[in-house]
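Entry 14. Structure prediction run on the chain below.
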Amino acid sequence: MKMGCPKLTKSVFSHDAAFQDVHVMIFVGFGFLMTFLQRYGFGAVGFNFLLAAFGIQWALLMQGWFHTFEGGKILIGVESLINADFCVGSVCIAFGALLGKVSPVQVLIMTLFQVTLFSVNEYILLDLLHVKDAGGSMTIHTFGAYFGLTVTAILYRPHLDQTKDKQGSVYHSDLFSMIGTLFLWMYWPSFNSAVSNHGDAQHRAVINTYCSLAACVLTTVAFSSVLERKGRLNMVHIQNATLAGGVAVGTSAEMMLTPYGSLIVGFLCGIVSTVGFVFVTPFLESKLHIQDTCGIHNLHAMPGLIGGIVGAVTAAAATEEVYGIEGLIRAFDFTGAYAHRTPSVQGGFQAAGIAVSLGIALVGGAIVGGILKLPFFGDPTDENCFDDDVYWEVLEDEESSVYSMQGSNGKAVADS
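Output returned:
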């Protein structure tokens, strides 16, 4: 099956529709995905709401200064709102590693710095290196995940085992989390194609993402059953690893990855992400002191790196025979100062984009982590982590009923 032949000029959807889809992903998808913790549902949805509302305002300014500042004014359109949501998406990803362990003040401070660093990284990649990253495998997922992992490593809590009973889920909290999963899964094709050029690129982005996500679900379910005792499925894997396919085709989504290529990427990412939850996450915590609450290393970091590599290879392999002369120029914007750039050179710059995103994420995360470690930001004590009662009004009857329910592992949770 060939995509882009004959040439398609009609858009799949307008920027207005794409904006609504992406907006739902940021506020509903990411918010509810993090509600799996049995006693931190308010914090997951509420603090995600807070950081996103604050972050989009700062992102409009930061991205405006870098991209649309003309005549002393920042020009704003619907695409600016989409890009601001993308920027905040990287903060939501980083927040996943810190979930339950930071105060609202720390969340806002991290958002302020991360949005700034995201905008700098995005400018370097998209404007200076001229890489293609429509779905943000590098700029959103790789950057956001490794930034969050670095911050949580700096904020390491050696006595977090005191709250081991609160770090699990209960039946209804897992169901709420699946709401987030399904919203993200359904709208991810819009996410990866929202800022693509109307026509071939946007159609390819939707189709590639659709295929990759579908394949990812199958391998996630299969490997979850294989890796768990008695062949049972683990809800953590279904909530998270099923989305890895959307992350991994973000960079190459609007390229000629082809449907079967997308299926292969999704197939592999379902395996990588599920294996990550079973083996890599415990290793990171025990050996590297990285306490990753939501497992963003498995859903965003590793698939983001895979996405960057797939994008570099797909760009380097591009030919005029596949894209057509005009199609190749449009696909990679080989115009103006980049008119003489070849696909192989573009592939090299795509690979360089991965390194730049990693470097800024690690250095920036270390600095911001050091700032957040200062003792006057009201972070919870170890024994009070993962508990809404610290920052929220929680009715006593609700509190006791949640604590008396059975955990998702079938073991009774301790009474309050």
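Strands lie at 69-70, 73-74.
Filed with the rest of this week's runs.
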